[in-house]
Amino acid sequence: MTSIAKPKIVHRGLRRNALGLTIRDYEGGMSTLCAGCGHDSVTAAIVQAFFELDIPPHRVAKMSGIGCSSKTPAYFLGASHGFNAVHGRMPSIATGAGAANRDLYLLGISGDGDSLSIGLGQFAHAVRRNLDMLYVIENNGVYGLTKGQFSASADVGSKAKRGEENRQPPIDPVQMAMALGGTFVARSFSGDKDQLVPLIKAGIRHRGFALLDVLSPCVTFNDHEASTKSYAYTREFRHRVVNADFIPPREEIKAAYDEGEVMPIELHDGSRVLLRKISKDYNPHNRGAAIDYIRSHHRAGEIVTGLLYMDEGDPDMHGLNNTSRTPLNELPFEALCPGADALASLQRRFR
Prior knowledge:
By secondary structure, the chain is of the alpha/beta class. It is 29% helix and 17% strand. The strands form 2 sheets. A 9-stranded mixed sheet has the order 2-1-3-4-8-7-11-10-9, with helices on both faces. It has a two-stranded antiparallel sheet with strand order 5-6.
């Protein structure tokens, strides 16, 4: 996770939290993502959430895999622990870190390619084990680092940079997590900070696996068939020798709308998505009703956002496996290595 060092300037008027830290203490390096990328908005929301929760940065372990999204942990919580795993294998590293030290706040940052393609199996097992962590998917429907191929979350009918139309149905991480028994399932939009920050805070405080699927527009590759500003349209009708590696600066996409309302969001290429924020009387504790609600609005072309499902009754991974309350690096040697007799007794159970 390399990045450009960010100069730390602490103004006298900056608010401090209960630990005496300013929001600058929760930042990381300078972002190297495209200007206007939704992932940077998610980074800002994570910084604000941990600052407002008064969590010491050194109590956080941030994990990631491979992809544009997996670069972002370099941009927040610079004083925390971190591990950049191989493609799709972040849940294994997070499981090991959580098993070794349950006092850490585990934060996993992934993308739709990292979690729903090569990492689908690992993602599924992290959900079913109810690993105590916040798992954020920065979902843009494309492989940004490898020039915009469809990811497993690409919608049917969406068009790639070169004009290919996606005909395969997408994998919805929200419905998948609920079907696997997930105990905290939410979805948001990167530009809706008023909704995103509280969901991050709730996911951090949740005991068990908290999934937050964040729709995060890619300013470079979110091209669609109806757009006349897409790279594909430009190549065919305007400049055939356009340099696609030059990305003009774009404005960050933001949204503010009330509960129960539908908001059309226009993306950088002129295409639109419909976001529906759940209403105040929505019940997030009925798994079957939540799945039906999501599917019914999906058929209407709407993407539902908010806290979609939560179950606080199921035990997390530590409760299921009766793990040590003391972090393993703090246990005495005698407890970690009880001797040959204890090993022999354990082996007899499997004979």
